[in-house]
Amino acid sequence: MATGTDASLPAAGAEPHTRRERLSALRDDLRDLRLNAERREERLADAIDAVHPSHRRCAANLAHYLALRAHDLRPVQERLSAEGLSSLGRMEADVLGNLDAVLGILGDVLDGGVAPVGRTVNVCDTDALGLAAAALLGGEPEDRTTRIMVTLPSEAADDCALVGGFADAGMDVARINCAHDDPEAWARMADHVRAVGSGIPIAMDLAGPKVRTGPIQPMTGRKAAKKPRLVVHPGDLITLTASPDAVQATVGPRHRIGCTLPEAVDAVEVGHRVAFDDGDIEGVVELTRPGEADVRVTLAAPGGAKLRAKKGINLPNTELPVAALTAEDRAALPHVVAIGDMVQLSFTRSVEDVRDLFDALDELGADDLGVVVKIETPSGFVALPEILFELMRRERVGVMIARGDLGVEVGFARLAEVQEEILWLCEAARLPVIWATEVLDNLAATGIPTRAEVTDAAAGDRAECVMLNKGPHIPEAIRALDDILTRMNQHLRKKRPLLRKLQSWEREE
């Protein structure tokens, strides 16, 4: 590599002109970044020391990554690329290692091979993420690194052949949704999974504090709908009430609907967003009074959106005064511990939520149970660094990107960047990620995939596991996902392209 003809270095504050000057300035900037990374590790020393020994070096790497991403690195990246050096675009797994690799090259050019300034690199093992994923989710399938998690339907409790069909199609992890059925049914589902004999791990998904609409009385008369509902239009007013009583079905412009979590009604404030039924209906709180909140509808289908009982309510701006681990979840935990290989904590929003679950598991003597935190709210996303440090106190842990509620809560325009940032942060911590919600949903429901959902499923290859939900065509969806992930594993590993030989355009000479 040429070093330039001018051996002098620029004066302080001068714009570098020769290549040697530019490389010297880059080295100074990278040394500053490295020093900041080490200082962040020192400030987080207590949190790093508290994690499980298997995660300790990875926790240090997470601290380094947080330090670097506190800066806008784009100008430095452009300068590095212009000099033919690594732009640090894939540094998540080994922050100091990437910095030192570039500093080493710069040292060869500028000083004739002097080692970079700094202590010996102490980063996580190269395969730490693979080991963590195997510990939590089971070993890698034969032809892909990304596992397939399948949500078991209620029928799986009484149909062992159905579960066997899922396994034959490519299911690697079985998910039991504790918001449905009962402990006896969960146990039968688990028995059927284990009867397959392939060592498929079982994930028990706690219901969490899901907020839903209350009951609705049916209309009377000839035009009464079979399923009672409110017909909501843009501009309508919905009074959200803490009362458990059934409300009358209405067609607008004023409606009332109950909320299954009364504390949520008292927590909302004027100006807060409210979304119903996975965001199909949205509004803003105009007025509050004890036990009620008036919501002006800002988004609904022009011809009227149907809002029924037991549909989800999302409150993105509202801090709910309830813990992620509900009383119902605590009652379910003894059964979860007896049945599952891991537990998934819904609506994780804070370090305290993780501690509550750990304490509850300790009381049950289940400190070795795998734990997955589900990130599905803005508060959980903002608190993710602290949540990861707390989570790493246990050995078998991971993160689920629960994109259903997360998309409604952060807004669909921001969902794509949020899920990317979660992937990056978890790779820096070397923790496995589950890519969840609406993967191949149309295929699972109808047997026919959409083009967009095939592309989405392919993007899930960057996670360690992709989750499928229920549907009459789940075996077809599993096989399709298996094929998609197997193909994509040949082209991409996290953010790193794999340049295998392309045969699509090969021609005989």
UniProtKB/TrEMBL annotation:
Keyword Iron: no
Sequence segments annotated as region (Disordered): 1-20
Reaction catalysis annotation: pyruvate + ATP = phosphoenolpyruvate + ADP + H(+)
Enzyme class: transferase
Domain Pyruvate kinase barrel as annotated: residue spans: 144-469
The organism's place on the tree of life at top rank: Bacteria
Keyword Transferase: yes
Cofactor(s) the protein requires to work: K(+)
SUPFAM superfamilies assigned: Phosphoenolpyruvate/pyruvate domain, PK beta-barrel domain-like
Molecular function terms, GO-annotated: ATP binding; kinase activity; magnesium ion binding; potassium ion binding; pyruvate kinase activity
Matches recorded under InterPro entries: Pyr_Knase, Pyrv/PenolPyrv_kinase-like_dom, Pyrv_kinase-like_dom_sf, Pyrv_Knase-like_insert_dom_sf, Pyrv_Knase_brl, Pyrv_Knase_insert_dom_sf
Keyword entries, A-Z: ATP-binding, Coiled coil, Glycolysis, Kinase, Magnesium, Metal-binding, Nucleotide-binding, Pyruvate, Transferase
Metabolic or biological pathway, per its Swiss-Prot or TrEMBL entry: Carbohydrate degradation; glycolysis; pyruvate from D-glyceraldehyde 3-phosphate: step 5/5
Coiled-coil annotated residue ranges, if any: 20-50
Listed EC numbers: 2.7.1.40
Pfam families per record: PK
Protein family: Belongs to the pyruvate kinase family.
Protein name: Pyruvate kinase
